[in-house]
User: Fold these one by one.
Assistant:
Number 1:
Amino acid sequence: MTDIKKDLARATLSTQLRREKLWTQAEKSVFETLKPKELTKLQQFITDAGVKTTGFSSLFEEYVKGFGNKKGKSPNKLLNAISKTMKLLEPFATVLDMAAFGTVVPSASLWAVLKIVAEVTGGHSDVFEAAFGMLETLLTVMPTFELYLDSFPEDQHLERSMVELYQEFMSVAVKTIRYFEKHYFGSTTPLNIKNVSEWFSKGILLRLGWNRRRKDLQASIPRIEKLAAAVDQRFLVASKHKQNEHINAQIVTQQELKEGQEKIKELLASSSSPSPSLNHSNTITAAGCSHVRISKSSTCQLQNLHNIPYSRNPQFHGREDIIYKIHKSLSPEGSSRPAKMKFVTLYGLAGIGKTQIALEYAHRHRELYQACFWITTDTPEKASQGLCEIARKLNINDGDLSSTQSRVKEWFSATDVDWLLIFDNTVNVEDVSDYWPSGGKGSILLTSQNRNWIAHDEIDDAIRVNTLSDRDGADFIEHLLSKKKLTFEKEAAIELVSEVGGHPLAIRQMVAYLLTANLTLSNLLNLYRESAMGEHIWDTHIGNTYRFTVATVWKVQFDRLDENARYLLGVIALMNPEAIPEKLFSGASSHRFAIFKSPSKYHAAVDNLQKYSLITRDGIEETLSIHRLVRKRALLYLNSEGCDLQSTVDYAISALRRVYPQRSPLPKPLTHKWPECGRLISHIASLMDEIMERRDKVQIPNVMTDLLLDGALYLWERGLLAQGRKMTTCAMDICEGRADQKQLLADVYDYHAGILSHSGEHAETCKLFSEQVALAKDHLKSLDRQNLPVTIMDEVRLANAYNNLACAYLARREYSQAIIHHNLSIALKERWPMRQVSFLLGQSYANLANVYGQIEEWKNSEELFNKALTMDHVGFPLKEASTLHNFGCMRVARELPGRALHVLTKALDLRNRILGEHYETANTVHMISTCYRKIGDNKKAIGYLREAIRMMENSQANEILIARSKYSLSLVLAAEDINSASDLKQEAIGCGMKEDREQEFSEYWLSEDNLEQVFDALVAYI
């Protein structure tokens, strides 16, 4: 054995030992987290696979089927629930085994651990689906492992990244197992549903706990995304290195190439024809250079057949995934496809980086092509100039453009040279039809804003160039600043990228402005946010490879649009930029623009906007999206002279009003319409912001106030009080002062005061509800003066106003006034014969029962609560839940915790099912904890209180609600001698003092006497 062979053997052995140590330690770190019985199950799974000679995934599927039959579950249903998880896991498991190179079999551990997850969650279908759904979410952010299946390059850094990815995923799976082993309820004794207390302590609380645990586990997503990016990056680097080794092995030495070229020259010199015909390629092969084919159609030296007009951009960063896709589709090396012309198009928004990617690809891989040409096609003049430059390089330019075009195209079709032709900034097919080769074995790379290129018959791949993620954009900024040795502020960089929507040209111009003005990233971020649209920043030029700036690029695009497309763009710009439903632009409309009445004209406008990538259409969801920078420029256009701003605003309002669910004249909840409201609410909020900013330029119709109230109702019901308050404030600002809109103004006061009441602002609440009562009375007097009949809906308005005011008085502990106004409300409601409004009467009974409970008239309170529950609540489960909750609170006050628990658990069931994680659900959880405290079960009380606090903090609950639960928790912890009790108590008291805005209980905070009652008194009863 030679020394070289010995060295190679030693290197191979060293690599094998390193790899074995790496993967063995990784497996050990996973196994150490498993319990002995779990390790036994894991080993058994691997043994079974060996005995049955089947794949791990097939064995896992077989196990799930058997488990389903055993537990009385539908095997197909279980498999369907995890089919996507299994599909995503397959390539991950395969590539893990490839990365281990036979040292271990990590896929075995992967599938075995998932078997254990199925075992501990399969007893309940919803938890089974939730657990595997979370694992599926983790797998969706993994690298695209299907691309790695052909070959896995040997690379030490890549292997280490794969190990870290494997360990992170397994950690999540094991934590899931650990949670359900600790709180196991899946396959043991079924819950006794008849025992209400046990059901809720082991059922709902466990599910609430799993929701919290799931959020903790989902924190792994950013870590896996980071590791996935590292794996992708290392794979691309390793693959490139491997390709270069292959190329180097194929390319002959410089001396052999020189000798081959000399022989070619001698042969050409001896030819009888001084001017070889373009129609005969007559390929000459140099000795020892069989892979290098050179056509006689050109006497140019190979190194001169490149006319890339720009030098390589030293600032280029990232986009490795796109470079890799281009290379895979276009590379002449190792292609498995028959020799033919290859065609890839890059499409996307202006300034997104298409030209820079094409430029980087051309420079990075120029050694693969004996000829590389570039034609800029955004104007006919530039296209002709590019063609003439190619002709000059080929030495076939005879002065006639038409003839030159034909001869250049013929060269591309006839030559055996591997060529790359780049068409940059192409708008339409017509722009390049005169220059498009009719055949040949070369490669075409085309960049365009026009997505319609994806429909081209000959296309091999259409690659959409997207904006940069916040992380990639921040990395780009760090790359730019590192060259100047300037300080990098990561958080400011991420925010800056988010502000410009990850647009590369905008990011590059921002950094250029930063360098020119000598700013920090934080300074630049503040400047951009404070200076209108930061317009002066967008005039900064960044180099000679792209002549446009953000300030000019959109103007060029907008100028190309027809009138209908410009109008549609204006309406879209008033909405939230993401997921704008297309149904806003369809259906009957009295609007003067015919575009939205005619489907064909609407689709023509959409196509016009998509042609320049100004919007994106999701055909499945039937939604439109717009980049935030395009949106900002379109909003500026709306402000310009000659634009019909009023017409655009009117249409946007009427479109949203037409499709957004409308509230009932009766105070019915919108719960059955929540999904639809959720899809549209962001567009109402965006429209509100843009209109209020332009109040001096547009007339705001009353229908906008009506729309804002409907939006506020949804937000109020979902517990999003701050957002709801913003809408009611704007509605009040629009409506006040309009004498003809008294009833609408009364509704505004109703909703605004309701939201304020949940924020503890009882004085202002009482004032607004008093205004509502006055407006309702004035309306009835007006009808009387005009001798018009009073309808039941007129009385509904007054009765509800009385009810609201009575609740406000209760919150202020003005009990006599509360009783008076509740009785006024009930007197009106008891006259109504309509069955469908009986729930409103039940609500008044329950509210009056609340008052009697506060003044300890228990008998009256109990009778009224029972009377309220006999009323028809069909279709209004949240009203029933509210009654049950308040009934339970009264029984707690009566020191009847067992009976209170009975009705509170019913209330929790309704609220948890409909509202989910909501401050009202959390409020009921708090009251259940109080029951357990009074029963003497502090352990359960602590669990419920912690869950209540978590839910309140996640649902933007009023601070006083959170403080009350924290104070109660501090008392229970103190009773259990837990050290954290004192700090929690002081935190709660501090918050309570701050929320006691009217200083009603100032003397109690200092003495700490009766503070539980004080906290209860500060919680609104509305």
Number 2:
Amino acid sequence: MASKTETAKAKAIADQLRQHLFIGVEATTAQENAVKANSSGQPPRRERLLNVVSVMERDSSKSSGPAKPRLLCITVKRNRKLRLHKVKMNNKMAEISKTWNIDDIKAIEFKEPTRFSLHLNHKYDFTATDAVLVEAFVQMLAGFCNKYAVRPPRYINTVSGAASSTQSGSTGTIRPKTAYGRAAGQRPGLPHGAPLMPGFDLSKPPPEMTGAEATIRPRTRGRGQNRAPNDQNALMRRMTKYVADHGGDVSELVPMGVPPPEEPAGDELDGDDMGDDADDVEEMLLDEAFMLSADELVNEFGWRANVDAAQLESRLLSELHKLESDNVRDMLEADKQVPKLINELDQAIGNLDSMDRMLKFYGMELESMDDDVRKIQMENESLKIEEANQQLLLRELDTILKTITLSEKELQVLRNESLETTEGIERVERVAASLKRMLGASNSSELGGMEARSEKMKKYEFYSANFSTRVYDYLKVMFQFKIDGSGGDKARSVRKGIQLIVGPEQVHKIMIKYAGLTLWLKEAKPSADKELQALYLQCMNQLYTSQAQKLVDSCRPVFFRYRHDANSGMPNPVAEFAFAATPGSHASGSAGPSGRRLSLDGLGGAAHQALASAKKGDTGSMGSPGTAIDMQPAEAFMIALDNLVNCVIAEQNFISDLFHYVPPAHTRAARQSPSSRKGSVDSKDESGESANMMLGENVTFYNWVTYKMRPINKWERPRPKLDSKDIVSQTVHFGTVKEVKSMLDLLFGNLVTQVDTLVEMGTRFDPSQAVGMLVPVAKFLELCKGSDQGFLINVLERCKDRLEATFQKYVSEQARSIEATKFVTKKRVGALPFARVFPKFIAHIESLVGDTGYSARAIADSAYSRISRLIFDTLETLLREADRNAQRHADDKDAQKEQLNAHVLLLENLFVLVNGLKAYKSRGCKPYFVPTLESYLDHAHTIQRKVTRAYLKDVLQRPIGKLIAFFDTVERCLAAKKDPLATSNLGKSPLKKVIQAHSASSMRENIKQLSKRVDKHFINEPRLRPVIWQAITDDMLSNYQRVVTLLARAYKSTNQSLDFTQSDLKRWLSER
């Protein structure tokens, strides 16, 4: 039994819902408005609350989430419609969140005493705290569903007997009405698995009824008929107990002001009356819900409270008599019509018997006709199958005939058609493809036993062998003829006096049209295909060898332009930009007639241009004068290497196309390129899509002809290494097949030697050309990066390594030459070689390298950095050693003289170096190199300023040295806040002696002697004398202004001053 607390709580919730939400079907408009005014939630509903239970809801479609508290309410409306509401409490206010009709319930599942599920639009799981309240709620809901639902729901498990139902795993539908009670269990006589509400045995009829009446119990009295008072009271007591047990409001069942009847003892309600009274209780609940109020009923009869009740009673009695008289009259009339109705029913029964006999006869006729129709349909299906088999057989026979048949006219095409024209080759290829298709079908097991086919195949094999022999003989002669014909001088091309290799290009254009025939040989006669490849390699090797030799010979005059004979008395042109003599400078040979020495400021390869312009008429074996001799060896090497590289790239791609060594990935990439797609659209190639499907494997001759495939062409560009997914691959060094690599080794076996020859000749007399040769090598390596040109990449990498080593060796020799420079300070020797050469060295290397992003640029910058750092370190070391030696031997005149000579030497070298760099910057320096050049100039200017200060200190020691020393002491004394006049060596008398020693006449004479001395110092570099004299002038004027200022500051009281003015000093300095 439910605890008193839970029961009280349920009644409190029901009372609250009846006051604010479900106010009853008999509520008036005034009552509804009053509830609306007192409630801020949902408007009240005119429905009667029959039962309510408090549950926790969890949506079964969600695996997780908190349970939500809800109220499940069963209500009835005025139109007798039962509804189920889900109510949530929001701020102590009831609010309906979901409403269902009784017909929306699809299943009721009872899981545990406090858990059950309702299957509505989806499954809802509910859990309560009290098992008794849950059981009562489910009982009432199940009873209403069985009685009033159009289609009762399914019931899964029973309320109290869940264990037995769960074990069987069956579900059932509760058809009988539910009864009030607590006992439950499976009753005998019912189907297994049919759930029953506890305490109600359907198989046990009431005592006063028979077994038939227990099965179907008719209602003997209508709803609302009169009952005896005792029966009314007993029924009212049962109804009151039923409503109280189900959480209903008992007060609503009792008229206002009338106390409810007392509940009899428990033994007064025996078990036999429960089954019969349960229906009456439920009917009375619904009847009371749908009864009109007393006011409405009496208003229909026009009765008012101020009128005597007797009037109403007489009115009602008259109505009752009228109804009884009508019933009597209807019964009498019905007795008269019964015999007539019986006769008509007998006639109808006879007619129905006749119709039944006719329908049976028609049924037998239809069954007979159905058998005939089924037999006809089976024969028709058999005929259709036979016709389809015959059609398939005809198609197969037609295919076989086409497979083994080739007309004599077509066979004559293989024998007699010309192979000179493109049209003739296409006709031959089409017939050969048909022949190949027939020969390819010889392995078919279905046709192998046909005698006619065997004879045909032998004939076709004979024609195939003859055609292969014809193709091989023709292509062998054609290869030799075309290759030999392309080797004449008329086909040669000259670029700046260098003879290029152009014969193979003409051969490629002519021979590519035979690519289909070579594919035929590759499949039909592989041995002939290999022999044809060997013949092609042999002929092309001879062509490449002869033309490559002419290419190298045409480059020889350009490479030998720097050849110098030491015994000829001519200057070595390489020495203009080299710090050391090159190994080839003493090689024997002719030299140019020029005896002109280039000027100090000749920059940016000017030595080359002067030498080239001097060699007028010396053209060697080239064509017009000055065509190739004006080039740098690096430029000639670039032209030659460009020609050789293009030949290797084109030859590898051509061999792959002609002899069909193209990987399928390359063929797919070529067909998917924009130009190929455009061409296929223009030609309206309907088989293009099918051709693409065939590219997953190697191309066969039949596919080549059928899908109109053509070579990739575009031989001048390297082809990328593609894997099976058409992605560039970097895992394999050689991106092509082994056969092509072997063919390239045989074809270009002498290429490595020829490239080495070009490198050796180009760097023999001028190793600095190596850095210029690195530019095209790095360019072509970048071009071949990621391609299948493995053979060419190996050659270029080998060449690159050799050139880098040659240039690094050359730079090391120049550095050793600078380090070996001997400085003679006992006499003035003028500018050193490296000061003159360094600007020309930079200009020369820049003319070779230029603004490139390849490795040559980094190598050249590294060489500049190394040599410039060595030059500047050498000059600074000379200055430091001269000053240190002079300080160590302060009384030695020779040491002082050597210091002065070192200063003069440094000034001359720095002047030459700075002027050379400035000249190159203003004339030939490219914008990208300006920052580097300015860094060198800044470094040189720093050293130049330091040396100039040291030189001025030396040369001004004689004319104004004592004056400067005296006033330097005065300045230090003033800095120490002392009075110079109070110092013995700075007094008035020492001051007077110093001023007298530097009179106007003596100063003028000293300036003249200083001018002669400066001219003598820089006799080797006259352009430097004005610069040095201007520095002397500025320094003497500055010292004069400093002396005048110190005299006015420290010796104003002595009235001592110099006897010459600043204007006099300027005039004397400008008179030199």
Number 3:
Amino acid sequence: MLPAFTCGQYGDCDPYDGQCKCPPGWSGIDCLTPQCGSLADDQRIPREDGQKCDCKDGWGGINCNVCKTDQACRGFPLFGIPDSEQDGSEAQNMTCYTGGETVFQNHQMCDVTNRKILDQVGDNRPVQVTFSCDKNEATCSFQFWVDGIESFYCGLDECSSEITPGYDFNTTSYKCDKLQCKCVPGRFICGQDGSVDISDFLTEEIKGPASFSCTSGGNTGSGPSFGGDTSNNCKFSEAAMNQLINDVFGDPYITLTCDGGECLHYSQVPGYVRPPKPDNTRWVALNALGACLFVVLVALLLWYVGRTGSGGDYGFLKKGSGGGIRLPESEEDSENESAKLMAEHVPASMHFDDLSYVLNSKTILSGISGAVKPGQVMAIMGASGAGKSTLLDILARKSKRGTVGGEILINGRIVGDAEFRAVTGYVDQEDTLMSTLTVYETVLYSALLRLPREMSEDAKKFRTLETLNELGILGIKDMRIGSSGHRSISGGEKRRVSIACELVTSPSILFLDEPTSGLDAFNAFNVIDSLVSLARNYHRTVIFTIHQPRSNIVALFDQLVVLAMGRVVYSGVVGRCGDYFDGIGRPCPAGFNIADYLIDLTVQSNVESRSTSPTLENSSSEEEDTSNGPHGEQTVLSGINISRDDSTELQLQTRAHPRPSSVISNSSVSGAYNSIKRKTSQLFEVVSYGNASSSSSQSQPHNHHGQMAAKLRYLVEEYKKSDVAKEIKEDRESVRSSVENSNGDNANSASNAYEAHLSQLPDVATETTLLRGRKRASWGTQFRILSGRAFKNLYRDPALLMAHYLSAVVLALFCGVFYHNITNDIAGFQNRLGFFFFTLALFGFSCLSSLGLFANERILFMRERSNGYYSSFTYFSSKILFDILPLRLVPPLMFGGIVYGLIGLVPTVGTFWKFILALVLFNLTTASVVLWLSIAFESVSVASLVGTLIMLYNLLFTGLLINRETVTKALQFLHTISFFHAAFEALAVNELRYLSLKEHKYGVELDVPAATILSTFGLRAQASSRNTFPSCSFWWPNIALLGIFFGVFTVGSFLTLHFFVKEKR
């Protein structure tokens, strides 16, 4: 009856003594007690109840059956050699084979990874499996453990195994035809404390066949793996057990993570023949063909969409009309909306008093006063350098570098800058337009971005065409703006486009700096006439600077401000200007243009002979006596005092002199000689005086009247005492008091009709909020419009885009020629690192071409944002999406797609896309650095120099030129903050981590893991040296670091753009 005793683990019961013959690692009368120590021990100690085994060094597993190190296998008996032939001496050259294949007896320790099983058991109770096989007997055993306590075991018979090597992984499979399982009574899921008992299920349903398979990435070299990474992804599968797992836990089978080991002599380790590299010829050809086809399609697309049709982007042409204007379908509604825009606004008067401007302790403007009402046009005149543009900037609330003083009232109130800019427009003296856009698109974008969002898009287009027609540029609406060297429209036409961009919004107050600059007399009159029509017909206020307009233009002015050296010579109604100067003894001759006369008068009055030499004094005295003009006036040209009779070629335009007869005599020659001598002396005197004045202004910055010529001081003082100046002051005080009365509910107590009218002047800040709100385009609309504009700019000037795409294809083929079919030896290792280094240098330095992307639009951005076109965020977002990404996202995809298979890098899908991801992130990071440089540095040359230095620093610390381990610990952070190093390490680890290098030279065969050489180079193949995460590659931290770099520099670029790139005048 002794053989009838049942032994655990399906051990044999000896019929003679009734003892169970337990498998290795088990003990006890029923073979259910694990043994501790190590598998190499002759006498092993059984595990005590409730305790865990303390395995010897180099051994692991619940019953200490799994070897971990080669040292643990020293003294282990050799399998396959009879005991009689072993001399008892310690075996040498033993190794712990972890390849997964069973050579003699293999043991594995596994952790169950099914999420539902782990949740059911509990977090603090590990669920494990032990699996061992004996190749000679073709049997395997399987034990299921919960918290170190065996629940059930299985015996597998008629087993076979096979190993399938891949290029960089192994798959080991065990298939057993017969399977029997049995519960350990009273254990988990086997009736413990009256719980679930699957004993009957195991004995009756589990019959086999069963399979156990593991996939390992640890043996990918050209030889066997004796150690290192032994983590395998495994699964145990049997039909009935799978059904139970699926019904109870929702998983198809038991999933495991296993570590295995078997002690062997090095000569017994299974040989490994690395399969040949896959033939990538077809893949390479398809990638190259796809890249070339992509370039051709992009070129055709850019050519097609880059054409400028006769109707522009919106096709505003009548069908069959041969180019006539076609209004939107709802013509009446659009016209009504446009008329509503022109009529429904906040009328704004402007009064300014005692304006001053000081820059670097030098007074530029002083004591400027004036007034202009809705429906009026104010012209600011003066010679060059008189301060016209500076005064206009101050009136328009432009940001100035110096200190501004004085008071500006809008409808008698002080208005904040935000409310003020909402109802004003400003046209700069210099045209800053996008060269790739058409005339129509340029003005339309201004309308779409700045007109009220309640206004329909058709009405905005109608308003755009209406504005173009008013300024006489409708006929060129489909012509591009053009740039230097690629002219399309004339300078005068470009000037009118700039005016149209502001005029299209119909602002309450419109400021223009030299609107007639570059225009002929006829077109200059048309521009001013359109401005006058805007003011008078739609009750707008127009203020502009102008330089010597002709008489029919002057007749259109309502208010005139004349400046000289930053002082007011006249400010008031144009119609009273002539009478005023008559009254102070400076009359304008009959029939002459008063604008020319005033310019000449202010220039002459600013020059006064300051010589103390008798010769020059006598000369000046004679010139005054012989002067033909009234009051002995003289002309100034280039800072030299010249009498009117010296030369007929230098006469004033407001004087008529008969040409002297051409009589040649000795006296005339002598006179000419004396005249030249006198002018030379005067030139040196003027230069000397200018230097003295400059020194005086720096040492005594507030002594202005001492520097002013007597005649100019006379004109300034006369105006201050005039009735015209007093009336402006009284008008300002009247408006202010009326507004204060209306605020105090005393509007009905106005003493006269004029004051009653003034009391009804609206508050611009309040009315602007109530009346349509002047809400311009939303952020979404701004982004859509700016993205469209950026895309047009990109495809209409495709040279840079195509250069990047073609260079990516050509250089990929170039690399393929020199690195083709790279080998798995030391030379192949070097070529891989060299290829990665070259690739990063290629994309890094090519990103420097983006320095000009923002530099070309810097002034345009500052002026458009200052004029309220858009927010800096929407501009930056569209710039990133449609300027940066097409240049930085597509080329690495094309380059990587071609070169990867051509060179013969690791041909797995995951490794390929990691390679591509690293390239793309590196390119985006470098582009973000270059973008920040182009924004931070106004000078392209300085930005280029700094960018080159940054690239060189990153190249130095890439990891190839300087070994990280040889650098002082305190300076090793220089590698960490190098985005070249992050990308280089990610590419190298991704390619070489599991590669094994085989070199045969001079009769010596070397077999070295590439990871070892990587670590020698100072490159980290593992994320951590600890055993906690032994399989975690350092690729992910590097990719995360590249993402952080990209995010930091992108955010930094935006903050720099938002806070530091602002218009300063």
